Amino acid sequence: MLHVTEEPSAEADVIVVGAGLAGLTATRELKDAGWTVKTLEARERVGGRLKGLDLGNGKAVDLGGEYFGDKSTMIAETAKSVGITGFRSYDEGERLTFVNGRRHAYSGLFPWRMGPAAIADLGQAILKIERLAKQVPPDGPWNAPNAEKLDSQTLWSWMQRNVTTATARAFITMMIEAAFCTRPSDVSLMHVLYYANASGGFRYLLEVSGGIQRYRFDGGAHSIPKRLAAKLPDEVRTGAPVRRIEQRSDSVVVSGPGFEYRGRWVVVAIPVTLAGRIDYAPALPGYRDQFTQRLPAGSAMKCLAVYDEPFWRADGLSGQITSSDGPFRVAFDTSPADGSPGVMSAFVTGSAARKLTRLTPAERRTAVLDGLVAGLGPKAGKPREFVEQNWLDEEFTRGCYHGWGPPGLYTAFGPALREPIGRIHWAGTESGVHQMGSMGGAVDSGRRVARELFARAAEERGEESKPDTTITEAVGRGR
Amino acid sequence: MLHVTEEPSAEADVIVVGAGLAGLTATRELKDAGWTVKTLEARERVGGRLKGLDLGNGKAVDLGGEYFGDKSTMIAETAKSVGITGFRSYDEGERLTFVNGRRHAYSGLFPWRMGPAAIADLGQAILKIERLAKQVPPDGPWNAPNAEKLDSQTLWSWMQRNVTTATARAFITMMIEAAFCTRPSDVSLMHVLYYANASGGFRYLLEVSGGIQRYRFDGGAHSIPKRLAAKLPDEVRTGAPVRRIEQRSDSVVVSGPGFEYRGRWVVVAIPVTLAGRIDYAPALPGYRDQFTQRLPAGSAMKCLAVYDEPFWRADGLSGQITSSDGPFRVAFDTSPADGSPGVMSAFVTGSAARKLTRLTPAERRTAVLDGLVAGLGPKAGKPREFVEQNWLDEEFTRGCYHGWGPPGLYTAFGPALREPIGRIHWAGTESGVHQMGSMGGAVDSGRRVARELFARAAEERGEESKPDTTITEAVGRGR
């Protein structure tokens, strides 16, 4: 893996923009098929929305993407292929939730002590969402039977009609902000259903042991792209923010400050909103450009507090805290597998992120630690280390966990998500099918673009290309 | 006015990015106060969303912004200051509307023959919108009393509850697509109210003689920026797409391919979505960046058919055609003041634009002419010239008429609309108050940034700066 200044120009069959999971997966697939590839990464590190925090003593935790579940087959496969396995998330003891100012300790999925009316309301709402979600195909949500209706309203509007108690509304809002990093008032009902279905179900999305938070990766999820990149030393080039993509009749020229790479095709494997900022020549057609104007990234920061030990476990607490109006929407015990040191990760998402990003780092630290103290007691206020990862501020990410559709996006512009433009192919988790928006979606999209390019090459050679059945396979496996 | 290659570097007090109405207004205001200014325009022409079509014989019509009304005081003032006056839009004869496949000829605002139930429904809905709009302050819609509620739903959701007949729904959808270039399902209820109030009222927005379509400019609206620029030969530089803005402790460096300008401050006066694509160093704070991810431009094309004469007038037709499901949402007689030649302008907006932009220019021409024939008869199918202006495809605009807020934007990120970031100030019609989103908003924003800079300079000199009262003035004048 070289810095781009060591190789300011090169030629390859394919130039890949971005060395996150999507770009690295595409790179590996293409290389394995004997193609030449050069992968340009803006940062000095690979991994995109997967990023590590070194704890010393050979231990590390995640400042970005972290969890996976039994249905997360693609990322588990990828991890295994580079020798990384998972371990169970810590999920013992009582959970805490702060809803509309009240603290509830509970076990199981729901805080039953919120009251029977709220719980019944919550239960029926989750069931309804679950049922609706099954109607939205992850490979083309715009093809859902009621697409126009599902995409014409916000989740907030749906909740106005389908959730009656204030407590259940607050609880769902909190869960949505934790899972989608945006408010029910911003996001299309269709997007919520689409994402839930692509992930393996709405309830699956919310659960820890029974859901997508069941496992974490030994050494951290960020070590997956690191190991992938380590096997691609001739391909990956860091410090290379791509600013311009020029398409010629038989080639592409991909360039940025001080570098210029040439290929037959280019794969753009960065978040949609960032893909929209590259200077394309010729300019992108309006349909794709307007699509990129409309798929923003979620608002998320992750704040890690490191303690000598996970003291809350001895107090009978799981470390899982949700909060409808505090400085974070959810916090988890993310200590290494052996429980040493103790690490709490607070997810400052949605409205909380939009508020806290306007404060100073010191003010944010105080706010987040106050929130942890409210749940875990005064010891939580004195971590030996506090690290914040503000994904909104990260120039080469600009939001987490994933991009989402405001009302109307998918029905008006959906096909732009994956349709190649000339010699440009699009990857990135937002264009994935299996677990779109998470690590699995990134892997899926990387595999897909490789297949697209194999088919193009076959076509150029005059061969009949096989139909692309893998999207269906992916959906089948994802559910 | 030089091409930037003739002056590849320069210094000035202020560098202005964009020579549309906003940038040119700021330039003039600053220059008049004795400041030095350099204004960098990406294109070879000035005017941004105002663009002309030369008809020969010294006549020209508009391919972009065109109309104004009695409340459009700021653009009228600006036009007058460069010797341009208005004339009455052609508004005689019958109007036509195609709603849900049925053709109605009518006079007055509403096609009464749509039936009494639909008309009553339409009337009450417009009244309700009008009343709600008054609650949304154009200088800060997020400060409206029911801001959260108004911004948490699409206009579609509001219509589900407040408009009962299919015909009225189709009619309103058509009017929204014509006025906002997006569907009721995409746009925040708040945005519709905000824009309506900033414009002078919802009904005012829809009317011709009694509304914002009352007048057109002699020689075309596009001649206003042309004349403004002609008076700024030392300031305006064309062919200069700004790619990077670097802020230093006491200066800014604004650069693009082959040029580098230096100033004390910079005014970015381009559409919000394009402002988000510049490479800022240091990177913009997440709050502003995420704002730019969420304010897309409308979808609009304008197609002009030129005939020897406006033959429809002799047939007793006004040339005004609206259509709920045809290739355009509205068409107007936009012949020059003396009625020669005859010009029809078809506004392909919202869902129509998203559909037609995926066709070839030849297919679009056929579709639009077919629509005109359905209204005006077979003669409409044989124009002597047909010109399409696809604003989605324009690299340095990327949508018309203006940027709009999806649900949640203004309540979560609204203040980012105008808050300066270090030495960067923001202009452009989307940040205007008086008639935000139209020509008036551009002028207003240009004046505002000039005042912001005067206040900063006064502060630097140790003077107490006067409070900025002009926003209130503008709102007062706008209504």
TrEMBL record, chains A, B:
Give binding positions for substrate: 347
Chain positions covered by the region annotation Disordered: 458-479
Q: Which Pfam families match?
A: Amino_oxidase
Q: Indicate which residues the UniProt annotation says bind FAD.
A: 41-42, 242, 430
Q: Which domain of life is it from?
A: Bacteria
Question: Can you give the residue ranges of the Amine oxidase domain?
Answer: 21-453
Necessary cofactors: FAD
Q: Which InterPro entries match?
A: Amino_oxidase, FAD/NAD-bd_sf, Flavin_amine_oxidase, Flavin_MAO
The signal peptide, as residue positions, is: none
Query: What GO molecular function annotation could you give as one example from this UniProt entry?
Result: oxidoreductase activity
Q: Per the record, where are the segments of Basic and acidic residues compositional bias?
A: 458-467
- Keywords attached to this entry: Oxidoreductase
UniProt record similarity statement: Belongs to the flavin monoamine oxidase family.
User: What is the protein name for this chain?
Assistant: Monoamine oxidase
